[in-house]
Design brief:
3 helices; single chain; seven-stranded antiparallel sheet; 7 strands; alpha+beta; S-adenosylmethionine decarboxylase
Length: about 140
C-alpha cells in the first residue's frame, strides 16, 4: 500500500510528572524526537498551562509532532506524523517514551494519503491499539 505519510497516535502513561510540566524539558524532548526520526524542523511552539500541563507542536518539513500533557495523571497524548521515506516516526515515539520515563505506551499507526482510483485520498489503520509495557 503506497501512502504519503505515517501517523502514529500515542498514549504515554506513568510518565514522570515533573518532566510533563516543564515546558523547556518537553520542548527539548520534542526536538530530540524530531531529530531521532530524521525529520527537518521548521517551527517550534509550546505553551505551559497553570497550574500544570504543556501543549506544543514541532512543525516539520515532513509534517508535525505534537504533545499535550496531564502531569497530575502522568499522561501525555502525542501525535507523530511524517511523510516521505527518509523519516521514521516510530523512532520519535520511542524517544519520547524513554525521555518521559513512560511505563506504558499505547499506539495506533495510520497510513495516510492513500490514493484512490476516484482521485480522492483515504487512510488505513495498520497497527491498532498496540500496548507496550516499558521498563520501570
Amino acid at each position: 500500500m503506497k501512502a504519503l505519510g505515517t501517523h502514529i497516535v500515542c498514549e504515554l502513561s506513568g510518565c514522570d510528572a515533573a518532566a510533563l510540566t516543564d515546558v523547556d524539558a518537553v520542548r527539548d524532548m520534542m526536538i530530540g524526537a524530531a531529530n531521532a526520526s530524521r525529520a527537518t524542523i521548521m517551527e517550534v511552539a509550546f505553551h505551559r498551562f497553570e497550574p500544570q500541563g504543556v501543549s506544543g507542536v514541532v512543525v516539520l518539513a515532513e509534517s508535525h509532532i505534537s504533545i499535550h500533557t496531564w502531569p497530575e495523571m502522568g499522561y501525555a497524548a502525542m501525535d507523530f506524523y511524517t511523510c516521505g521515506d527518509h523519516t521514521d516516526p516510530w523512532l520519535a515515539c520511542e524517544h519520547a517514551a524513554k525521555v518521559l520515563d513512560a511505563k506504558v505506551m499505547q499506539t495506533t499507526e495510520v497510513k495516510r494519503g492513500i490514493a484512490q482510483p476516484s482521485g480522492t485520498f483515504t487512510h488505513a489503520v495498520t497497527r491498532d491499539h498496540e500496548t507496550v509495557a516499558l521498563s520501570a
